[in-house]
Amino acid sequence: MTTATLAELAPTRLFTTRDGTMLDVRAAFAEDETLLEAFFEAVSADDRRFRFLAASRHLSHEQLAPMTHCDHWRTESFLAFERETGKLVASAMLACDAKMETGEIAVSIRSDCRGRGIGWAMLDLLGEEARKRGLKRVISIEDRDNHAAIELERERGFEPHGIDGDPHLVLLEKRFP
Predict the structure, then answer these.
(1) CA-to-CA distance for 2 and 5, rounded, in angstroms?
(2) What is the pLDDT of residue 128?
(3) How far apart, in whole angstroms, are the C-alpha atoms of residue 171 and residue 119?
(4) pLDDT greater than 70 at residue 33
(5) Which class for 93: exposed (0-12), middle (13-18), buried (19 or more C-beta within 10 A)?
(6) Domains in the chain, start-ordered, CATH in brackets?
(7) Is 38 helix (H, G, I), strand (E, B) or coil?
(8) 57 by DSSP, 3-state: which?
(9) What DSSP element (H or E) covers 45?
(10) In the predicted model, what is the mean pLDDT of residues 62-69?
């Protein structure tokens, strides 16, 4: 008899993107590290740089560990799988401050899956999770060259702010009533 992993037992939620793609979304667990490592190999070099604010061809265990070893309340990492193929198409993270007032978010989409509304669905999921946790706001720190993410976040109600002392970054903020 085999024992099921946490990932296999984790509940999934269904999201449908604007183009009709059905996504099964679940929390990430320790056993997902190699899956995430392969996922980030399928993310463009620019998107990896934008997500981690540093150029890297390959993610290290130290970079992957925060996405796979979460407390599932203050910090949560989500994986989105295309229902039809089972392929991991997106990774999203919500990391809250100690007071549970602000959460920082980050989203990555496989290069071959961009433009299908997956980013919108993941931002909606992160906003829903932030509200569930009682956060007052979520923020995203973006490289000013990441025009696609900045535009997407603005379309989803985020307001841009400059970051003092760093002309290359912009903070996008969405407040909850």
Answers:
(1) 9
(2) 95
(3) 18
(4) yes
(5) buried
(6) 6-175 (3.40.630.30)
(7) helix
(8) coil
(9) helix 45-52
(10) 92
